[in-house]
Amino acid sequence: MYRPLDVALFTLSEFERGLAGLATEDAAVRLEKPGDGRMNAISWTVAHIARHWLARTRPREQIDFRPQDPAHPPPLSDALAWLAEGTSLAGRSLADVSSATLSQTGDGERENRGTALMR
Questions:
Q1: How large is the angle between the packed helices 4-19 and 42-57, nearest 10 degrees?
Q2: DSSP character string of 54-106
Q3: Which architecture characterizes domain 4-118 according to CATH?
Q4: So where are the chain's domains?
Q5: What burial letters (b/e) apply to 66-103, b meaning 16+ CB within 10 Å?
Q6: Could you tell me which of 63, 65, 69, 115 has the C-alpha nearest to residue 89?
Q7: Residues 70 and 63 sit within 8 Å (Cβ to Cβ)
């Protein structure tokens, strides 16, 4: 049986592989949605995922990116650096976490820790 952390780290590695060769300019493009509005840029999505992983390992530290701010995509190089740091820290700090721990819900959390990692 696969551990949730292994699945999450594999998924992130495949996500990173899909970003290989992406130009900085292309990563900052916000395409129009059908109907109204614009989609988030790829660099915004990378930073959003990175922030999620960094929050699990360094909850008090913040990166220069807040999803609730106006949609200005961060530079792709910054977003990729944050993602690399977050996955590295998570891989080390969560390597020995048990399934029981991942099933727990922390104070103020709406979902258990395992579900939060998989999101």
A1: 150
A2: HHHH-TT---S--TTS---PPPHHHHHHHHHHHHHHHHHHTTT--HHHHT---
A3: Up-down Bundle (1.20)
A4: 4-118
A5: eeeeeeebbebebbbebbebbbeebbeebeebeeeebe
A6: 63
A7: no
Give the pLDDT confidence score for residue 105 in this predicted structure. 76
Model pTM score: 0.76
User: For the chain, how many residues are written?
Assistant: 119
Within 10 A of 5 (CB to CB), how many other CB atoms are there?
19
- The pLDDT tens digits along the chain (119 residues) read 677 677 777 888 898 899 999 999 999 999 999 988 889 899 999 998 888 778 766 666 667 776 666 678 899 999 999 888 888 877 776 666 667 777 777 677 777 767 766 66
CA dist 118 and 8 (Å) reads 6
Could you tell me the two tokens for 54? 């960094």
Angstrom CA distances, 103 to 58, 63, 87, stand at 20, 27, 20
Angle of the 76-93 helix axis to the 42-57 helix axis, nearest 10 = 30
